[in-house]
Amino acid sequence: MSISHQETCDILLASPRLQRFCTLLGEPEASDMLDRLDDELAWQQPRLRLYGQERPIPRQQVWMGDEAARYRYSGRTFTPEPWHAAVVRIRDTVIDRLAGNGVMASFNSVLLNRYEDGSDRMGWHSDDEPELGSDPLIAAVSLGAERPLRFRWKQGLGAPFNVWLPHDSLLLMDRGTQDHLQHALLPRRIPGKRISLTFRHVAASGGIAPTG
Ligand SMILES: O=C(O)CCC(=O)C(=O)O
Ligand SMILES: [Fe+2]
Fold first, then answer.
1. Ligand 1: which of 34, 111, 113 to mutate, most ligand atoms within 8 Å of CB?
2. Is the pLDDT of residue 207 over 70?
3. Whole-number Å distance between alpha carbons of 30 and 102
4. Of the given ranges (106-115, 121-130, 142-151), which has the lowest mean pLDDT?
5. Which ligand is the nearest neighbour of the Cα of 194?
6. Rounded to the nearest 5°, which phi and psi values hold at 54?
7. Transmembrane region positions (predicted)?
8. Would you call 142 exposed, middle or buried from its count of C-beta atoms within 10 A (0-12, 13-18, 19+)?
9. Which of 24, 111, 194, 195 maximizes ligand 1 atoms within 8 Å of its Cβ, making it the mutation to test the pocket?
């Protein structure tokens, strides 16, 4: 039996809707994309002031998107990197897959995160900056090492839980998710690099708060 490319991996939460799709691009494209993004993007590791200390963030990142999707940080306005062809291809595949599942989405920017191994990480946050609109929809693509994204309820509505994100998976964090939940990529003893792409829609002259 062949596995349908439209396969839905699972609906993890009905409200707010959190849904994982287990095969986005298929092979060999997914592995090629991992290598291309790793090789061809201008990965950066900005320093952040956190708890009074300036440190490099524990991962690498690239902001990419439409020129209008600018963001402010530390009193400066940054223009995202122009769209890379490989990222456009992934973005459009995400939009198609979501549309095929009844979810209409458009994205004008993406944060790409590169985790060298399990010690690279991202701290607890919600992607709820005002510039992302009142109720953002965020689509996260994972390539490379499988790691869990950990979720916790803001108002203690339930127990924290892990969402394992395999290579070539897509996680839909639908509207409402950022209101009710925080997420983090915690350090784990998991070898291998991972690249994630979190697609968003930033309002013109918007901003993104950095996360430690
Ligand atoms: O790497 C991940 O899967 C999570 C990234 C994330 O939360 C973000 O980019 O806001
Ligand atoms: Fe996030």
1. 113
2. no
3. 24
4. 121-130
5. 1
6. -95, 125
7. none
8. buried
9. 111
Q: How far is the CA of 127 from the centre of ligand 2 (A)?
A: 5
Does 140 contact ligand 1 (Cβ within 6 A)? yes
User: Which residues are placed with Cβ below 5 angstroms of ligand 2, an ion?
Assistant: 127
For residue 111, what are the β-bridge partners?
63, 198
**Cα distance between residue 160 and residue 79, in whole Å:** 35
pLDDT at 77 over 80: no
* Cβ(141) – ligand 1 distance below 6 Å: no
Selected residue with higher pLDDT from 189 and 52: 189
pTM for this model (two decimals): 0.91
Q: How far is CA 190 from the centre of its chain?
A: 19
Residue tagged 């950990």 (tokens): 150
Per-residue pLDDT at 48:
82
Domains, the chain, with CATH or none: 25-200 (2.60.120.590)
CA distances from 207 to 59, 72, 84, 120, 196 (A): 20, 5, 21, 24, 20
Find the range with the poorest average confidence among 68-72, 92-96, 108-112: 68-72
Atom of ligand 1 nearest to the CA of 147: 3
Residue 138: strand pairing partners: 173
For residue 157, how many other CB atoms are within 10 A of its CB? 9
Other C-beta atoms closer than 10 Å to the C-beta of 113 total 22
